[in-house]
Every structure is written in C-alpha cells, then in structure tokens.
Amino acid sequence: MTYKVGIVSLGCAKNQVDAEMLLARLDDERFKIVEDVADSDAAIINTCAFIEPAKRESIEEILELAKLKEEGKIKCLIVSGCLAERYKDDVMREMPEIDACVGLGANDRIAEIIKRTLIGEKVSDFPPKEELSLEGRRIQSTPRYYAYLKIAEGCDNHCTYCAIPIIRGKYRSRTIENLVSEAEWLAEGGVRELIVIAQDTSYYGTDIYGKSMLPELLRRLCGVEKLRWIRVLYCYPERITDELIDVIASEKKIVKYLDLPLQHCNGDVLKRMNRKGDREYLTALLNKLRDRIDGLTLRSTFIAGFPGETEEQFEELASFAKEMRFQRLGCFPYSQEEDTPAARLKDQLDEDEKNRRAEIIMEQQQLIMEDYAEEAIGTEVEVLVEGFDKYAECYFGRTPADCPEVDGNIFFTAGGIKPAAGSFVRVRITDRIGIDPVGEII
Length: 442
Fold this sequence. Notes:
CATH 2.40.50.140, 23% strand
C-alpha cells in the first residue's frame, strides 16, 4: 500500500530547506507526497521555535492538525524541526495527540518513523543534532525559478538573546564543491535566482577552511551558467571584508542587496547582546558599503526593548535608523527566550513598552520606504516575473531590491505581452501604491 504524506513547514528558509530534504527521503521510500495535509495518511509539521510568536504558531498548527486526526482525515501526526528539538518529550506530554516527536538528527530516518506510527507505535527519537544531513536530494517547494542554498548549519556567535546554538548546535559548513554542484542541479531544474542562506553566511568556511570563504563561494556560484541572480542574506557586520565587498560590487550576477542583521546601534546594548560595534562603527561600515557597491539595497533587523535598554538608548536606535535610511528594515520587540543569557538579565521591559518601541521604529521606516518608492518613479528596473494578479488586472514580480517572503512586489502592465513566471523583463516605474512600485513593461 502506498501511503500519502503531507508536510507543513514553518519559520525560516533554512527550515524550509530541511523540509525539502525530508520530502526527498519520503519520495525515495515510495511515499506519495500530497500538497494538502488534510488529504494525507501521515502529516508532518516542521516547526519553528526561534521566538515566542513562532512557538505559538507552531503549537496552533499542531492543534489544527490534531483536529484533522480526531476527525479521521489523517492517521498520524509527526512533529519535527526546532520546537521538537528544543522541547523534546515535553511536546508529546503536553499534546498526546502527537504520534511522533523527532529531533533534527532523526530527519534521515523519517520514512521509518512514519511507518512505525502508521502501525500504532508512539515514537520519540532524538539522536545528536549533528546527525542532521546537510547534503542530499531535495524536492523544491519554492516556485521553480528561485531556490534557497543553505551553505551551513548551526551558529557559533552565541548572541545572548538567541536560542539557535541551543537548538541547532555548532556551525557546520558545507564544502564549496558540494554547494556548487547543488547550485548547478538547481539551475538545470529551472532556478534563476539563488538565495544564499545560513544563520551567519559571512562565517561560512571558517570551521573547515580556517577563514571565511564566502567571497570564493560567491565567485564559484557566479560561474553556474544558467543562474541570473544570486542574493546573499544574513551577513554579520564585523565580518564584512573588503574582499567580500569587492565580490558583491564586481560580480554581475550578485544582486546589489545585502542583509545585515544589526539588532542595535548602541555600544552598551550590543555588548550585552554579545554583539560587536557601536553607532560610529556601524555608520562608517554602512557608508562604506554604499560608496563601494553601486545601487546597494540594505536590509536589516533591529530588536527593541532589550533588557536594560534605556529610553535614551532606544532613541539613539530610532535616530540611527532615520539617519541610515535603510531601504528595508524590520524591528521586533525583544522576546525573552528561556535558557538564553539575556533571559536572566535584570531590567526586563514589559511587553507593552517593547511593542511601543518597535512600533515607533516601524512607523518611521514606513515613511522612509514611501520616500524611496516616490523617488523611484521614472526609473527603469529589471523584474523577475512572478505571476498575474487577476484582481488588480496586472502582473507582479520582484526587483533586485526585493527578497521573496520578506520584501514587497512591483506591479506592472504588459501591453498585450504575456510574460511567464520566472522570466525577466524591464519595467518603467510610473507610480506607487504605498511602498509598492507600479509600472509598465518597456
């Protein structure tokens, strides 16, 4: 009998890559992969547990799938991913509807685990997280024209607010040869935009080559013939070298877009976060990047309301964000994560105050992004077509300044042309709707 399996993957793109590898292992074992988990015999939820809202989302999704099991629509429910790894047997104890709770290191055994649950067995399997495979076949879950390339697992930075080292373990890089091979396979399958990810991409290679090899990796990826865009996420500011800047500036395939999760600008707050730098250092770095990389789009994230953050320190952060005018910025209220050093710090702020501070930054950022959208009117941009919006009666896509999942879209008319999803077109921007540009194909 062929069993049907569906998967729900939550959280970041790194978790999504893990889910794609899970799907490939199930396909190898002749399970039938279905898009709708309600139509499956076994439902897998690949969870996130990075911050409290992500944990709540994971738990809510588990409970929704548990209802489907109670109604007889699915036979068994398997929980994997970060929530499972972090809380282990607590998950099954608190939610007995679950048939299996498995850690990251058990991903290679997922087919065997499902077979055991289908015959009524309860499974709890938590081998060392280092047994999580970083290489192997994937079944791509993104649109065929873009994909994520996870170049490493885990993290050695030990930021005091972050549970990733607890959940994912030490930093483990993949080899350049393996990554280039995977990129070639993805490109042959239709991928035109490759998005390079890790918890810290700028640390890539330090563990196996003795130094950061991100510049060399990017050069090699630019040699993959069918790739059109290469996008780099999650670079830490203290590891931005002149070599990396030169590669991003000079290689035509690398989109001029850089994600730097700065988190704060005040030196004292950054020190308590176990992060480096201060406002003067970061200002100089960002100005240097903009001077040397023509047309650069800078994305960052901030944490508002970190323990002990004074009103003056928060005002410095807001002033920094206004001065630097990031093209893309997210600000999140601090989440007190158990077992992290920051959770034990004194002077924890209340939720209302943390939310108030984050909202101030985001309201300010909205105005900055509207200014950028207004300034773009009259310019021409390259656009990766993503589809047709039947309600707006126009096409939509992304520019080099827009990363999937986190940034916006450009909407445009095509004048009788019918560009296919995954194709590239030139668009003249003629207007805007809020922060989203509107234009027409040239």
